[in-house]
Every structure is written in C-alpha cells, then in structure tokens.
Amino acid sequence: MVAMKVVFLAPSYPPEMQQYTRGLAEVGAEVYGVGDTPLQALPSTLKPYLHDYLQVPRILDEADVVERVTTWLRGRQVDRVLANWEIVVLTAARLRERLGVPGMTVDAVQGFRDKQLMKDRVAAAGLRVPRAVRVRTVAETRAAAEQIGFPLIVKPIAGAGSADTYRADNAAELDAALARMRHVAEASCEEFVDGDEYTFDTVSIAGVPAFANVAQYLPRPLAARTNEWISPVIITVRDMAQPKLAGGIALGHRVLGALGMGDGFTHMEWFRKADGEVVFGEIGCRPGGAHLVDQMNYTCDIDLFREWARAVCWGTFEAPVARKYNAAIIFKRAKGHGRITRIDGLREFLARHGEHVVEQRLLPFGSQRRDWKKTLVSDGYILLRHPDWDRTYELAMAAATEITMWAE
Ligand SMILES: Nc1ncnc2c1ncn2[C@@H]1O[C@H](COP(=O)(O)OP(=O)(O)OP(=O)(O)O)[C@@H](O)[C@H]1O
Ligand SMILES: [Mg+2]
After folding, report:
1. Which phi and psi angles does 155 have, rounded to 5°?
2. Atom 14 of ligand 1, nearest CA residue
3. Phi, then psi, of 302 in degrees rounded to 5
4. For residue 7, which of 54, 81, 97, 163 is within the disulfide window of CB 3.0 to 4.6 Å?
C-alpha cells in the first residue's frame, strides 16, 4: 500500500484531537502534526501516532502557519491536509489550496464558518433559515430589528459556545444586549425561532453521509448557557426513523449539498417548531464538541475517531451503523466557588442506575471549579445509555436533579 501522507492541524489540543491522530495512524496514514505545543510537551501516548511534528509559535495565526508548513514540507508531497478543530478548519483549506492537495476549498469551508454566508447559501437552495441581517454597528442593528421584529437574537457572526448570544424581546433588551457586545465586530441579528433544538451530525464522503446521527439538547442551549443552576443534557436519539425527525434529517442532507460538503465530519443544529416546521440553525465542517463523538460511539458501539480517518483517507466507512442505545450526557455545575468539596446523591444514583452509566467524570474532590460560561463540560459529566428513549430521558433527568456538586 502506498503511504497516505496527512498533515493534521492541532493534533494534541483540544484533547480529543489525540483520538483523531490515533485514528489516522490506525488506518495507515503517516501523520504530520502541526501545533503550538512544544514537541517535548506532547503526551507520550500521542507520539507513536505522529510520523513528524512541526511546532509553530501561534496555531491561530493563519498566514504564519501556511508559510511555515509550506517551508517545512518543501519537496515532500502530501495527500491530505485536515483539521477537526473549528478555529483551524480554514487554515487547513488555505494550506490545501497552497499545496495543491485535494479536499474542500477555502470558499466551501467559508460557507461552514461564516454564519451569514452559510444562511445565505442554505436559503438560496430553497431551505428554511431564520430571517437574519448581518450588522456591524448599533445603528445597523436597530434598523435590522425594525425589519425582523421581536423577539430576536443577536450573536457574533463567528461565534462558538453561545458566547455573546442574546435574546431580546423589545428595544430596551436589545440596547442592553448591544452594550454587552461592544467587543464584537460583526454580528447576526435574527428572527427568534421557538422550538426544540437538535443536532444532525455526519461523517460524510463527497458530501453524502456514511454515518448520521441526531441528538436533542435539553434544554435549548441558550437557556442552558444562561442559567447556572441547570445541568445541561444532550441525548443521542437511537430511533432516527421516527416521523418527527424526518424533516430535520432531510434538511441536513440538503444543507450538505447546498454548502458543497466534501469528506469529513459535520455538526449541524436545527430547530423543530411546535407546528412541526423545521428551521436550519448552523453547521460546522468538523465534529461536535463536548464529547458528542463519544456519545455517538456509545450509541452504536463503534469508533468514529478511526472511522472518520478511514473516510477522509480512503473514502470508505466500515463500522456498523446499527443504533443500539440512546446515549445521554449530563453536565454538572457545582454550587459555590473554589474547590469541589462534596457530591451529594452520586453514590445513591450509581447504586440504583450504575449499570447504565458508561462514564463518570465529575471533577474529584479538591479540584478547582471550571468556568461554566467558558466550557459546556463545566465541572464534569456523567454519560449513560439505555435502549429505550423514555427511560434514558428519566435517567438523565435523575442525574441532572438528584446529584449536586458543592464547592467552597
Ligand atoms: N435564531 C435563533 N432563534 C432561536 N434561538 C437561537 C437562534 N440563534 C441562536 N439561538 C440560540 O442560541 C444558541 C447559540 O447559537 P448558535 O448555535 O448560532 O451559536 P454558537 O455560539 O455557535 O453555539 P454553540 O457553539 O454553542 O453551538 C443556539 O443553540 C440557540 O439556543
Ligand atoms: Mg450552536
């Protein structure tokens, strides 16, 4: 077999990137890692999967990374340039164009990064998106609000983690939101879509899903990100054939076509209104974060880290896609500040429901609380699964309400 040479950006951080590096090596790729972690600081478990490694001073400095990688590779032909971290997917595309490597173009990837451009392209394909206007100033936003009407949402064009995303029900709330958004250069002002929120995730080959997944957010992400007392829950849906999901799944397939998806992971979010109408939310050409890939793996008992690598390197997907479980993740936020001192209800929960729990990763006693606004994973999580949706939901809500972490 001819070696498949793959440049993989950010192979060690965020930590799950190490799993993709492993997957690439396991399907026979020579991995050329590029990151800002010093070589000596890479985890020893990662090193066997790296064929070579270039440390760059700033992985987010796109032009600099493109120059340095080009110089580093001089004379060496590579077959793929890949990235699974949202903020470097465009850098990978620029490198592909510079090096003449096949894969998604800068223009195609921009459709997955720029929230207004993505909505324009999805809408141009005749699909339902929230009415939205790109705004740069307070005056532009007020004018957009006139046009769109309340309630509305304002959020950064290139946002992540619901940061700086606000709902405004009237002009006063809009002014309050704008006052908190002064550091945001460009925003999207959108119609507020009221409904349930789901994901549509895929591993695609030439824009066609070889694997697809739907997960439900409980509650909706903006509510979960606004109220600290909530333990956010995400559940993968075992039964994707149920009629209430059909519209969202069909939308997902058409969005991939509209945006010119190539090979790799996609993570889309969509709304289902009470009247059944489905509305596009957003999409990235990379995997969902916050352990969603682990959840999908637990749903089917497969290894998508490796299967993604097979899809992008060799154009095949071999893992079985039969769905066995609904997999729920429950994120916990400790009450109080400082270090974790106590976890109430955990022992009882595990004694009663432990057989369904596949991971228990709550922060141990003595660890510093994390900033819940910055990370969805917060102070840790419990991952559980069950073949029956209602039972999975009950178990997830029990973990959300009966387990309490304390910090001081
Ligand atoms: N037009 C809208 N109508 C209703 N709710 C919305 C709308 N746009 C955004 N939201 C809410 O805000 C959340 C964050 O918005 P969005 O997903 O666009 O940004 P994000 O910061 O990329 O999110 P994340 O990285 O958490 O997925 C959504 O999941 C949804 O709950
Ligand atoms: Mg989102």
Report:
1. -155, 155
2. 162
3. -130, 180
4. 81
Q: Are 257 and 209 in contact (CB under 8 A)?
A: no
Contacts of 342 (CB under 8 A, 6+ apart): 365, 405, 406
Specify the pTM: 0.96
With the CA atoms of 245, 246, 252 and 254 taken in that order, what torsion angle do they form, in degrees rounded to the nearest 10?
A: -170
Tokens describing residue 211: 């694997």
Residue pair 24/98 in contact (Cβ under 8 Å)? The answer is no
The strand order across the sheet containing 187-191 reads 132-135, 187-191, 152-156, 166-168
Q: What residue's CA is closest to ligand 1, atom 9?
A: 153
**Residue 1: per-residue pLDDT:** 58
Which residue is listed with tokens 């004379």? 75
Q: Under DSSP, is residue 103 helix (H, G, I), strand (E, B) or coil? A: coil
Ligand nearest to the CA of 217: 1
Distance CA 282, CA 122 (A): 10
> Which residues of the chain register pLDDT less than 50?
none
Pocket test for ligand 1, best of 89, 155, 197, 291 (most atoms within 8 A of CB): 155
Burial (CB count <10 Å: 0-12, 13-18, 19+), residue 45: exposed
Protein residues whose CB sits closer than 6 Å to any atom of ligand 1: 130, 153, 155, 159-163, 165, 190-193, 197, 220-222, 269, 281-282
Residue 375's pLDDT is: 85
Q: Are 109 and 85 in contact (CB under 8 A)?
A: no
Q: Are 27 and 310 in contact (CB under 8 A)?
A: yes
Ligand at shortest distance from the CA of 115: 1
φ/ψ of residue 76, rounded to 5? -105, 120
Q: What is the DSSP letter of 318?
A: -
At 233-250, the pLDDT tens digits run 999 999 999 999 999 999
So what's the pLDDT on residue 3?
A: 82
Nearest to 251 by CA among 327, 193, 328, 305: 193
Instruction: Determine the distance separating the centroid of ligand 1 and the alpha carbon of 70, expressed in angstroms.
Output: 36
| pLDDT, averaged across the chain | 96
